Amino acid sequence: MQENISLKPYNTFGVDVKSKYFAEVRSLEELIETLKFSNSKKLPLLFLGGGSNILLTKDFEGIVIHLNLKGIHEEIINENEVLVTAKAGENWHQFVMFCLDKNYGGLENLSLIPGNVGTSPMQNIGAYGTEIKDIFESCKVLNLETLQIETFNLEQCKFGYRDSIFKQECKGKYVILEVTFRLTRKNHKIDVEYGAIQSELEKMGINNPTIQDVSKAVISIRQSKLPDPKVIGNAGSFFKNPTIPISQFEALKQKFENIPGYPNGDFVKVPAGWLIEQAGWKGKQIGNVASNQLQALVIINATGNATGKEIFDFSTMIIDSVKEKFGIKLEREVNII
After folding, report:
1. Where does the record place the catalytic residues (predicted)?
2. Which one is the CATH code of 233-336: 3.90.78.10, 3.40.50.150, 3.30.1340.30, 3.50.50.60?
3. Active site residue 222
């Protein structure tokens, strides 16, 4: 247990705030011991994994637990299916690469997403037409009140767009210990319909792609558009893509004929990056904070010295600007602490 520790190395925005207490846990036993200490002191809790989907706006007057549980386990189900379980502290992209090296399919479209495995169900992370819910089998969690281990299946997780039960009614009640995914061994489903994957594969001269080829294309696209958090502080996509009624979309199309939209039942999903760019924010910098020049959806710690409050205020200005121009209120994807 350490005291007054800077959290700058533990969040991808590189925001320098302090935690009153800090503990790095590498086993379930260490985790339970730390939780008992927290309960005895009646301290607020904050779990950090890869720190990639969080914005710290102030010092944390409690205990930060850096979850560093490691390990990967495989269980072959049949000729075409395998269950792969990864502990919460495993790096997400490294886990994806592990699965691709084994020729296990299902995760390739989720390559190069920052963060750790443990937070992937919480956010129902997704990219290029794939979401966690598509390959999710179950997760083991620790009940923070009873300190008992429980298992959540796909239905119990109540996955939605960048959403799950862990962000709603179960928020703050559990910590995810490990996640199990159902992947393919042979008959892989190749999904290249979303985004620029197909054109990227054509550039690579590939007509009959493997899951490894799809992963390489996704990595190439992401690297061309998204800044590396190790180089410049960011949390990836800062806002969710809004979903609006068809009637509202049709009305907007009368005014903005080039507005892109993706049908979703009785609604249309509109790319938040396009809205932000049209509102004049792409590449714009105010003080220490900027909108990324290549992808307006990404807010960056441009100077490396931005405070969490500066980044939050910058995001508020974007929300207000988009609302004024399009009548659409953007929702932050990043967790604000």
Report:
1. 162, 237 (proton donor), 333
2. 3.90.78.10
3. no
